[in-house]
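Late entry, written up from scratch paper. The run itself happened at the end of the previous shift, but nothing got recorded in the book at the time, so transcribing now.
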Amino acid sequence: MFKKALSMTLLSAIIASTSLQTLAYNYNDTDVEHLQTVKDAKIDLVKITPSGNVIQKENNLVVNFAQNFNSKYYKTGDYVQFVFENDVKTTEGTLLIPCNSSLIARITCIESPKWFSRNAKVFMEFTHILLPDGTNIPVCVELAKKKKYLQEGAKETAGKIAAYTLSIGGVGSGLGAAIGVAAGNTITGLIIGGSIGGGVGLVSGVVSPGLHYKAKKGEKVILELQDNLKLPVR
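Output as recorded:
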């Protein structure tokens, strides 16, 4: 019985030693580098391995619209192309995604502009990266901001209300609306507008439909990886 127990102990020790050697080999066979990324990114870690490089989830990727975009002319199911205008590299110099690679997105929903200056919302699913050599890589990313959709901001909305107001009359109220919307508070705009002067143009501008989402070719979009992204060694 003693010999049997001793044999089992020795066997366990050999297996444990072999496992540790394997783990050590795997660890030494992997380098960690750091992604050239945007300010305030959650992490910047990239695993460099002989079989492929892995950008860890929560890293940010920066892409640009490949063409002008206007939500008025798109519908659910349409595809939108983005492009990497610059190489995606680590600070240590490893090339991960070459410039001129594309990121393809499919529009999953477009909410049209609504009354009271509520702007259109564009929801997208980013599906895959297409490298210049034709390699197709699935990707899991989403917009790196609290709102997970594309929409015109307060500045554009304020400009629209001000322009609408000027076209009807009431310069003072148009200015008030711009101030209020820029502050994220339309009611504040109404109060300021009323105190500055005339209200007909302001009210018409506020209650009119909001804006379609527009982006110019080259406009930047920042994305956050929701899963690890494995890329071929370049």
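The first strand starts at residue 31 and ends at 34.
(Scratch paper discarded after transcription.)
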